[in-house]
Amino acid sequence: MAQTKIIVDTNSYFRLAQNIHPLLCQAFGSKDYTLYMHAELNAEFRDSPRLQASFSWAADPEFRENRKRSLSLSKAQKAEIEDTIEYLWAYVKDEFHQKRGKGPSMTDTIIVATAAVLEIRVVTDDQDMIELAEEYGVHQVSTLELMKLMLDEGHIDLDKIKQIVAQWQYDGDTPYARWKQEYKQLFKHAPPSG
Description:
Blueprint (H helix, E strand, L loop, with lengths): L3 E5 L1 H7 L16 E5 L2 H7 L2 H6 L6 H7 L7 H26 L5 H13 L2 E3 L3 H9 L4 E2 L1 H10 L5 H14 L7 H9 L7
Parallel strand pairs: 1-2, 1-3, 3-4
């Protein structure tokens, strides 16, 4: 069976990888769902002292090894992704950066462009990235929705989800303002406290 590829953004990767390891390139479930990250994530981590300080565990050899393999792309796909990045980045600069003073980063834009060209889902909790994905018809899911899929497919259990969510709260790294409502809607009980 062919993989059902899903690309994970930086924030979602850091919210999950420490507790679900190996997170990437491990097929699970009835459709061989397989999570990938974009190679840009390694560069973003390498170049960000803030990320390195917040997620020091990600520098450990087993996590670096798991991030080595990213999506395999043909020459034609790479060219189409480059064109899409250029187009999306112009939109981001006009509609987000100039009008709002903030918006998706270049890495976020690259991830959305890659998902658009490959017609795969992107996992993100970043509201600007969600808006960009929706604007261009890219199927996106939240980190909580991904965990619900993993639960439904027997990849993780509810105790693991509770552990992850409690750690988010303990670390002060919860996804977005309405995450507790989404958690309750998906899992039919209130989230654990951190």
